[in-house]
Amino acid sequence: MAPYQFQGISVIGKIIFLLNIITYLCIWASLILRFCRFRRAFINTLNDPEESYMIPAAALGFAVIILGIEAYGVPACGEWLLRTQLVLFWIFIALAICIAVGLNWHMYRTRMATRQPFALVRLLPSFPAMLGGTTAALLTPAQPPHLAIPMLIGGTALQGFGFMMSIFILAEFLYGLHHHGLPPMRRRPHLFIAAGPPAFTALALMGMADVATEKLPAHFIPLAAHVNTADVLLVIAVFISIFFWVLSFFFYMIAWLSILDARREWRFDIGWWGTVFPNSGFTLATVKLADLLDSRALKWVGSAATIIQVILWLGCASSTVWAVLTRRALWPGMDEGFGPDQKCEEGEGSDLKGGVHSGSILLKLPSLIGF
């Protein structure tokens, strides 16, 4: 939550939340229609080096809706929705595990990396798991302790798995930058993906540790009988999160410098949405860290990051609508950075009809709108 707010921000949040649900359902309807109309479209999506990595975005969109329900739905609807949230949380956890195991296995089996050299997209199959901790941190405050504690443990487990998986991919990404230089402009907005794992991990650790001070018994670890478990956990979480936040800030600035360096080549395509979702993690982590440290300077940094985030969201949303209306997106040959005079090469998202798959944009958008 932004440290400095204005009157009416809650109303804006509710409007965007409802827009998020409508958009998410419309996207699923479009996907189902596409897969029913073109029977091999789903198999093509699964085996396409551009689209296959975007499948986890559907789970990210589901998580964003769950968080929106907690913020705007539960206060208005009461106890029954609170119980529904518990069920939705565990459904999301199961979905995140299935995607992480199943999709990663599929990528290994098909050697997808040989057709998709951009390392950062390999973070995406494990990205829903990294929202497990963040989701647990936001849902557990309203749950009773006997239900909240398993959620905190489950969120910690998935957060740890997701972050550990990201370390290996980030190492490959940095190696590639050193040896091959910066990617072409159409890939540079995706550089913000690197800022996501450390930021969301910091946010999750601080959030869950903060909740633990209210939900965990004093001596949750039996062998540590002389200290309050939750207090120790909170102190450790805050200082570890500082490490993660600085790492996220490093990737955040590298991405901005890379984009500004190629400003003469700017041209909107769907890849620009990569500036939105990962940066949400950095912004939220900054705000949470400022709150726990009671740092006025960090609060202003969080406010500035929030303003930038809103501008990016509005810019990407309006540009996407205009691109669709002018047939520059969701149109054969026009997605994933292709222009009207450019043709798809093999392995760059072409479908059976020779056009570019629209599924990647359909899968990306739901995870981006709610933040």
From TrEMBL:
Membrane topology: Multi-pass membrane protein
CDD domains, A to Z: TDT_Mae1_like
One matching Pfam family: SLAC1
GO CC terms in record: membrane
Any GO MF annotation of the entry: malate transmembrane transporter activity
Protein location: Membrane
Major location (coarse): membrane
Protein name: C4-dicarboxylate transporter/malic acid transport protein
Alphabetized UniProt keyword annotations: Membrane, Transmembrane, Transmembrane helix
Domain of life: Eukaryota
Record field: transmembrane: 12-33, 53-74, 86-107, 119-141, 147-170, 191-212, 232-258, 270-290, 302-325
InterPro entries assigned: Mae1, SLAC1/Mae1/Ssu1/TehA, Voltage-dep_anion_channel_sf
